[in-house]
């Protein structure tokens, strides 16, 4: 039996694993799905939630568990499990990136997101992605400038959401209609600034933990092109594929759980 910690992606919450959790438990695994700060039932103010908040919440949960865990992240929160692994590598057995941002040392998530020009998420945020502002933040979000940005950036630039009209096509095009209806009620805004933070990862900590990537071949949010570029820049120990949208936990939960069970046995 293994313990899986499941982290949702942008806009979602622990609820997005509702089909996966019982299947993994039936296979004999312990599962814990988390609401990141400001998502689901976590009442943290979304405008003040930081990447450190995400990381520290995850670490607090892991430290209460006996032994090592398998840490799985979807989409944006690949950056969270990378930071967690750097901080407490002794508690992490494996890292699993499900169509998620696998970012190398010294780079930020947004540097890769901007390369994904076919992403329907990048094209349909509210407010719209400003290339000028985004480029300025990428260049300046470190050191004392990061502190000043954290303090003085106007509230309207601190979060974004996905335009509702694109939910189905961008995230759930192979899912049952009720999934989009669920999303219409439950998706939340996402804090922006964590996406500009340059990760600090070392070979002797993050680098020593086995990494597995699960590609989503029909992904229109984090497209296959950028998934494979990230794997090229940070090679993984194993790669699996699911012929699905960005949300195989809804459209193909059994296939996803079969892969997770195989990973757990290795």
From TrEMBL:
Coiled coil: none annotated. It comes from the Bacteria. Keywords: Hydrolase. GO terms for molecular function: methyl indole-3-acetate esterase activity; methyl jasmonate esterase activity; methyl salicylate esterase activity. SUPFAM superfamilies: alpha/beta-Hydrolases. Residues 5-258 form the AB hydrolase-1 domain. The keyword Transmembrane does not apply. GO terms for biological process: jasmonic acid metabolic process; salicylic acid metabolic process. InterPro entries: AB_hydrolase_1 (IPR000073), AB_hydrolase_fold (IPR029058), MES/HNL (IPR045889). PANTHER family: METHYLESTERASE 1, METHYLESTERASE FAMILY MEMBER. This is Esterase EstC. It comes from Leptospira terpstrae serovar Hualin str. LT 11-33 = ATCC 700639. The lineage of its organism: Bacteria, Pseudomonadati, Spirochaetota, Spirochaetia, Leptospirales.
């Amino acid at each position: 039996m293994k313990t899986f910690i499941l982290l949702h992606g942008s806009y979602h919450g622990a609820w997005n694993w509702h089909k996966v959790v019982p299947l993994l438990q039936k296979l004999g695994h312990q599962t814990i799905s988390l609401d990141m700060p400001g998502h689901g039932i976590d009442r943290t103010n979304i405008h003040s939630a930081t990447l450190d908040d995400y990381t520290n919440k995850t670490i607090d949960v892991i430290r209460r568990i006996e032994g090592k865990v398998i840490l799985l992240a979807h989409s944006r929160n690949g950056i969270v499990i990378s930071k967690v692994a750097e901080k407490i590598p002794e508690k992490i057995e494996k890292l699993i990136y499900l169509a998620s941002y696998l970012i190398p040392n010294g780079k930020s998530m947004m540097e890769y997101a901007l390369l994904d020009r076919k992403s329907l998420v990048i094209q349909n945020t509210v407010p719209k992605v400003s290339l000028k502002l985004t480029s300025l933040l990428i260049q300046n979000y470190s050191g004392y400038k990061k502190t000043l940005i954290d303090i003085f950036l106007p509230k309207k630039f601190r979060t974004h959401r996905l335009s509702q009209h694109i939910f189905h096509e961008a995230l759930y095009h192979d899912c049952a209609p009720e999934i989009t209806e669920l999303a219409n009620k439950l998706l939340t805004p996402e804090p922006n600034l964590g996406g500009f933070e340059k990760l600090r990862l070392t070979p002797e900590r993050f680098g020593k933990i086995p990494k597995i990537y699960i590609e989503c071949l029909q992904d229109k949010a984090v497209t296959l092109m950028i998934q494979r570029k990230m794997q090229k820049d940070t090679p993984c120990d194993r790669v699996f594929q699911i012929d699905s949208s960005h949300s195989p936990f809804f459209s193909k939960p059994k296939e996803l759980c079969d892969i997770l069970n195989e990973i757990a046995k290795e």
